[in-house]
């Protein structure tokens, strides 16, 4: 029996070995690193592709959504230019995914439909957070833009990212000045795809 295509004899690297998605930038793949149940921050190890413990959270704040990144994206000069800093954080593009049903495990791949973006700076570098919905979630089927997301959920996302690196007695390096809609989110995804191609090749 022939192997299905594509067939991976070995585990692909989540950042470089998976595709950006079936219909980017309208529907993208999201590789999930952290769930709303995690008091520990995980990040994919850039060398091996395995999930690495980044740090236990100092506070009790938990991410209000699934949190990960879009494969084959890179926040370089194009993404930085869109944020008017000119500098991206040199990581894959982050994505927060809303789903009605709890998903309590990380290292899963899902299809997500971008509806907005949180324009975040971390240490003066662009660190935008795409806000998306699980693409086949019936509850979010009509969501097309950030205006379709309850403001309280956006507020919770903002609070999480404003506090998730906060150390008492030190100045907060994170700022979030703007939350924009689906059109701007798609522009940032396309910019991150172009930055990736320039940095790593197609």
Layout of secondary structure:
Layout: E1 28-34, E2 40-44, E3 51-56, E4 66-69, H1 77-82, E5 94-98, E6 109-122, E7 125-126, E8 129-134, H2 151-163, E9 174-181, H3 182-200
Parallel strand pairs: 5-8
Antiparallel strand pairs: 1-4, 1-6, 2-3, 4-5, 6-7, 6-8, 6-9
Give your account of this protein's structure:
- The chain has 202 residues and is an alpha+beta fold.
- A hairpin with a 6-residue loop joins strand 2 and strand 3.
- The longest helix is centred in the C-terminal third of the chain and has 19 residues.
- The radius of gyration is 16 Å and the shape is globular.
- The mean pLDDT is 93.
Would you summarize the structure shown here?
The protein has 202 residues and is an alpha+beta fold. The protein is 19% helix and 28% strand.
Note the main attributes of this structure:
single chain; 202 residues; alpha+beta; Inorganic Pyrophosphatase; five-stranded mixed beta barrel; two-stranded antiparallel ribbon; 3 helices; 28% strand; globular
């Amino acid at each position: 029996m022939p192997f299905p295509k594509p067939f991976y004899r070995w585990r692909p690297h989540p950042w470089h070995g998976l595709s950006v998605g079936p219909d980017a930038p309208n529907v993208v793949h999201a590789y999930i690193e952290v769930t709303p149940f995690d008091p520990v921050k995980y990040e994919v190890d850039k060398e091996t592709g395995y999930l690495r413990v980044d740090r236990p959270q100092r506070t009790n704040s938990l991410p209000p959504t699934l949190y990960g990144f879009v494969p084959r994206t890179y926040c370089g000069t194009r993404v930085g230019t869109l944020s008017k800093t000119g500098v991206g954080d040199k990581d894959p593009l982050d994505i927060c995914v809303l789903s009605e049903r709890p998903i309590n495990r990380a290292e899963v791949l899902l299809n997500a439909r971008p509806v907005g973006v949180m324009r975040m700076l971390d240490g003066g570098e662009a660190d935008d957070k795409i806000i998306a919905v699980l693409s086949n979630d019936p509850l979010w089927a009509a969501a097309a833009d950030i205006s379709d997301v309850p403001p309280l959920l956006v507020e919770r996302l903002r609070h999480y990212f404003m506090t998730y690196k906060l150390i008492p007695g030190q100045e907060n390096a994170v700022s979030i000045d703007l939350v924009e809609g689906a059109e701007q989110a798609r522009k940032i995804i396309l910019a991150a795809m172009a930055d990736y191609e320039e940095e790593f090749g197609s």
